Amino acid sequence: MKQKNMKAGVEIGFWGVRGSIPSHSFKNLRYGGHTACVSLHYKGSWFICDAGTGIRELGEKLARIKEPISLFLSHLHWDHVFGLPFFKPLYQKKRKIILAGPSIGRRSFKALLSKIMHPPYFPIGPVAWNSNVEWKSMESGSQKLGKVRISTRPVKHSDKTLGFEFTFPGGVRVIYVADQELSLKDIGFARWIKGADVLIHDAQYDKKEYAKHKGWGHSSFETLLEVAMKAGVKKLVLSHHDPNATDALLEKRLSWCIRRARLCKNPIKIFIGKEGTTLVV
Fold first, then answer.
1. Cα 43 to Cα 172: distance, rounded to the nearest angstrom
2. What is the distance, to the nearest Å, from the Cα of residue 223 to the centroid of all Cα atoms in its chain?
């Protein structure tokens, strides 16, 4: 991913792009093995999507930068919360952090997260955090944090999961969907992402793998590309890579997508989510 226009715009950082479980081996060093964590930095404010193992390194950086932090969890599967206890800003006194995620029925997001991050499942829970955490239970709808509007939408996964749309001043739209079993028939989703500047989306399988894993809550990269092209998405980032997806395999997928877009004469720009890279829009 190339960096450009670093003095302005929204800076999107990729800290973890793997799905299901961390996967570190010599075969995936190029794209990385940490689980899901993406940051959006805009005019001194940080908007973070998910707290997979990749968030630890981001926390080391943010502990030295006293800027506002808003952290959004798409859902509560382990690979998306693994890194939360190791996010250093949570232990900084007087640090204000917004922590948001889905509620389920009458159970608030705070109650759900506190239940799974508690002895004997994990030795340290929210009671050990020294920061000033503002908890938010999120449903469908939108809200504003400063000049940035955050809209949420349920997406198709094995448990309740939210997709996030960030709309910045000037109309720049970044959409993040960590886990979703996408269908070509999902007209509602296609309408939601229409014309997005950046779509970061689950692309865990190819079509053959998906056929063996229907109902597992993940998408094939081929289906994702078709939906994104028809919706007029400007930049597409394939993410949530399968633990067994090697660097070589991911590069083959990227090449296939680029050829397909050219064949369709579609101007979409396609990227493979790569740990440690930045995309600016």
1. 14
2. 19
On whether the 11-280 domain is CATH 3.30.1360.20, my answer is no
Q: Which residues pair with 98 in a beta bridge?
A: 70, 134
In the chain, where are the structural domains located? 11-280
Q: Determine contact, residues 206/249, Cβ cutoff 8 Å.
A: no
Are the CB atoms for 100 and 70 separated by under 8 Å? yes
- For the chain, helix, strand, coil in percent to 5 are 25, 30, 45
Per-residue pLDDT, 121: 86
Q: What is the pLDDT of residues 68-77, one digit of tens each?
A: 999 999 999 9
DSSP letter, residue 145? E
User: 169-185: per-residue pLDDT in tens?
Assistant: 999 999 999 999 999 99
pTM assigned to the model: 0.95
Per DSSP (E only), the strands in 81-184 are: 96-102, 132-138, 141-145, 148-155, 161-167, 173-177
219, 180 Cβ separation under 8 angstroms: yes
Q: What is the largest CA-CA distance in the chain?
A: 55
